[in-house]
Amino acid sequence: MYTGYIGYIPEKQIGVAVLENSSGYPPSYIGMYALALLLDKNPEEELPFLSREKKLKRIEGLYKGYKGTLKFEVKVEGDIVYLKFLGKIFTYMVPLFPEVLEEDFIKCYTLSNGRKMYAEFYIKDNTVELLFERYKLVKG
Questions:
Q1: What dihedral do alpha carbons 95, 101, 105, 107 form, nearest 10°?
Q2: How far apart are the C-alpha atoms of 14 and 70, rounded to whole Å?
Q3: Which are the contacts of 95, defined by CB distance < 8 A and separation ≥ 6?
Q4: What pLDDT, on the 0 to 100 scale, is given for residue 78?
Q5: Do residues 123 and 47 touch, judged by C-beta distance below 8 A?
Q6: Rounded to an integer, what distance in angstroms lies between the CA atom of residue 104 and that of residue 102?
Q7: Mean pLDDT of all residues in 3-12
Q8: What is the Cα–Cα distance from 55 to 49, expressed in whole angstroms?
Q9: For a disulfide at 81, which of 31, 44, 53, 96, Cβ 3.0-4.6 Å?
Q10: pLDDT digits over 59-85, tens only?
Q11: What spatial distance separates the first Cα and last Cα of the chain, rounded to whole Å?
């Protein structure tokens, strides 16, 4: 797949072009990052998608329930968080859509029988706890 991004700021007489022949990280993000650097800005502070991405990456990992009786894996792909149940007999995956993104709290939802069901991630120091359905799970 071929795609690209062209960004320019006429009043500063600067621009950037990004071309790619594979899918992956969006070329628009790469281009905006380059433009921020050309403007002597800190991309980590100026670009909201980087902050969002950084917050979501913190919740990725393996989560366990009481005495390891339940295991879930959390993986982020783009704007979607995937919650995968790792059972001994079967597995299933639930897509979660972020609704609230704060430094110490992330709230996502999925749909179940036409109703919203929430997954809440509580982040404190190096610990992440997940409340989903009737389960309390801890990352690590």
A1: -30
A2: 53
A3: 80, 81, 82, 83, 110
A4: 86
A5: no
A6: 6
A7: 94
A8: 10
A9: 96
A10: 999 999 999 889 999 999 989 999 999
A11: 37
Position 131, amino acid: L
Domains of the chain with bracketed CATH: 3-46 (no CATH), 53-139 (2.40.128.210)
Crossing angle between the packed helical segments 27-38 and 48-57, to the nearest 10 degrees: 120
Q: Sign of dihedral through CA atoms 27, 33, 35, 38?
A: negative
Q: Which long-range contacts (CB under 8 A, 24 or more apart) does 117-120 make?
A: 119/81, 119/83
**pTM (2 decimals)?**
0.81
Q: Residue 36's CB: how many other CB atoms inside 10 A? A: 17
Q: How confident is the model at residue 119 (pLDDT cuts 50, 70, 90)?
A: very high
For residue 54, the SS3 value is helix
On whether the CB atoms of residues 39 and 55 are closer than 8 A, the answer is no
If we measure between CA atoms, which residue out of 39, 77, 37, 47 comes closest to residue 59? Answer: 77
Q: Rounded distance, CA 138 to CA 125, Å?
A: 13
* DSSP classification of residue 24: S
Q: What is the mean pLDDT of residues 10-27?
A: 90
Phi, psi of 24 (to 5 degrees): 165, -130
